Fold this sequence. Notes:
Blueprint: H1 6-20, H2 26-62
Amino acid sequence: MIKENKYYKFLEQVKQEAYKVTWPDKKELITSTIIVIITVFIFSILCLLLDYGIHGIVQFILNIGK
């Protein structure tokens, strides 16, 4: 009865697919992690510079009439 349930069939298929997953080895995991950390750092710096630039432009525009 329980094996005819569609949720049971779904979970069985999930279990079968989970066995097919190939996990990265340690070297690949470390390399990917380092790349992600460096990329996040670079984009953070770019966003910081862009924020300061926009802030400076807005301050310049707001101070023109004073």
